[in-house]
Amino acid sequence: MPEFIHRVRAQDGALLAYIIRAEFSTDITSFITPPEHNFQVGLVVHPQGGEIQSHFHRTIDRHISNTSEVLVVRKGRCEIDVFDSEQRLVETLQMTPGDVMVMVAGGHGFRMLEDTVLLEIKQGPYIGIEEKERF
């Protein structure tokens, strides 16, 4: 059976990333990330005619010390390298349209195998290139 949700872990077991394949589906609302993660990522399922009541999100002070990131491959193909916190390569995976990467910790890099469009979602405000450490 194909693995539709792949968890990338460091040697010490620390979770680095989720890769959610385009084929992943569910009949009920299912969150891939646990409630304590900086980003909550899941599929929210509603029947035809269902509604989400109008609402807003109250202001809540949160302390966030790292930047979580979600990337969705909209077009093309790429390879992602996932690194642990010591900048050691842990795993290389290919991503295709509809695949989602949720970066929880560690580092990452990409190689485009085709012309590729990535939808990137991350926490802001973005303070510029100085928030990145390149290696």
Based on the model shown, name its key terms:
10 strands, single chain, Jelly Rolls, 0% helix, 135 residues, three-stranded antiparallel β-sheet
Largest sheet: 5 strands, antiparallel
Shape: globular
Structurally, the number of domains stands at: 1
SSE order: EEEEEEEEEE
What gap, in angstroms, lies between the N and C termini?
A: 36 Å
Widest β-sheet, arrangement of strands: 1-2-8-5-10
Examine the secondary-structure arrangement and name the CATH architecture: Sandwich
Radius of gyration: 16 Å
- For the secondary structure, the number of strands is 10
Beta-strand content? 35-45%
**Percentage of residues in helical conformation:** under 10%
Q: Which ranges are low-confidence, i.e. pLDDT below 50, for 5 or more consecutive residues?
A: none
Number of helices: 0
Instruction: Tell me the CATH topology.
Output: Jelly Rolls
By CATH reckoning, the class would read Mainly Beta
What structural class do you assign from the helix and strand content?
mainly beta
**What is the average of the pLDDT values?**
92
